[in-house]
Amino acid sequence: MTGDNKFVVVANRLPVDRTKSGWRASPGGLVAALAPVLRAHSGCWVGWPGEPDTHVPPFDFDGISLHPVGLSGWDFENFYEGFSNSSLWPLYHDLIVTPQYSPEWWDAYKSVNKKFADAVAAVAAEGATVWVQDYQLQLVPGLLKEARPDLTIGFFLHIPFPSPDLFKQLPWREDITRGLEGCDLIGFQRDEDEQNFRALVGASGPRTGAFPISIDPGAIHPGAREDVDKLREKLGNPRTLMLGVDRLDYTKGILQRLLAIENLLEQGELDDVAVVQLATPSRERIEHYKQTRREVEEAVGRINGRFGSVGTPVIHYIHRPVPKGELGTYYAAADVMLVTPFKDGMNLVAKEYVSCHPDGDGALVLSEFAGAAVELNQAYLCNPFDLESIQQAILGAVDGDPEAMRAMHKRVTEYDVDRWAQTFLEAL
Ligand code: ADQ
């Protein structure tokens, strides 16, 4: 049985969230980039609607047809929280925490990947193009190639691909590489990720390439002058406003940047500074995420206790998602943006910040281990494992370099998420 969709995107999540009044587009550049392609090619999106144990029939949203894949509570715990986020996520981010490997999680990963592959096979037209997204669905290409050899299959990995030495820990390593080899083209964020994969599979096998993802500059606007002024006033009009914006994830190095700031305050090298740390709750049932939250919140409390005063803390910490509109005000207001992940596929926050600074003001402190450092190499680069290195980058950034910022702005606005999707699909 085949469907009539000539272009199918398949991702763990559908690009919508359910609210009390119906479905709402979830924030994210991927859907913005792919929506025009989907509309132009009578395409559809296959993914999980975000609620376990619920049957959601196919529906149209904003001109795109959505095909929900149902997951049970057991699937969610074992496929998503288990194999995807407690085995693959730490393994692919170079063991920042120790991955756990469980045969039960692996069984769930296999069975959920099969569900996704079956759903795609049922909706894809003869000879259709299918674009599979990310680490949760690495078996889908192989399953699809077997069931539907007529399809052209692309895959994009949003997170890093680890070195072969690390990857070989995975008890099911060959199943994963075989699954990916069902593709016609695999896209990675960086050359290094591509080379790591190539070192495992050799010169034969599917085509691969590096396609650094980017942002939709139209979706994130620098805040208006008066909103920026109001925000700075609320923060006590500090001379230097520093900002961190992350999912609360142990890969993002939030604690390390707070410790670097604490050292600088202690040494008297920073004065009249306010720091805003926005941290979206993420994967909250997993123990390592709970621990990261405890450590970050303890550091915030300690630093404010040591260096803040009543009514003017040093660190302003928000553990809630912030609407995209407000995010633009924070980005525009910040003199120094702190992006210090231990490892990150790309890091779109760095690009969003740069896109909100068209005039050369502001400065970006960026980890060498973020994929974004390849393109944004004029940032104040640091090694997040070395507090002294973060401290030096922060001190450099306090003075800023307008030429560097303007050059990075040009890169981010020219090579946006549309270009990313087009480049990949043309190569496919
Ligand atoms: P993430 O790990 O989620 O993505 P990132 O690329 O930084 O990381 O994207 C996060 C997105 O969430 C950004 O668009 C940002 O604006 C938003 N966000 C973060 N914190 C927020 C907050 N407190 N409030 C509101 N919005 C917030 C994965 C990979 C990355 C890769 C992307 C895309 O881990 O390396 O860049 O996919 O491929």
Automatic annotation (TrEMBL):
<comment type="similarity">
    <text>Belongs to the glycosyltransferase 20 family.</text>
</comment>
<dbReference type="Pfam" id="PF00982">
    <property type="entry name" value="Glyco_transf_20"/>
</dbReference>
<dbReference type="GO" id="GO:0003825">
    <property type="term" value="F:alpha,alpha-trehalose-phosphate synthase (UDP-forming) activity"/>
</dbReference>
<dbReference type="InterPro" id="IPR001830">
    <property type="entry name" value="Glyco_trans_20"/>
</dbReference>
<dbReference type="GO" id="GO:0005992">
    <property type="term" value="P:trehalose biosynthetic process"/>
</dbReference>
<protein>
    <recommendedName>
        <fullName>alpha,alpha-trehalose-phosphate synthase (ADP-forming)</fullName>
        <ecNumber>2.4.1.347</ecNumber>
    </recommendedName>
</protein>
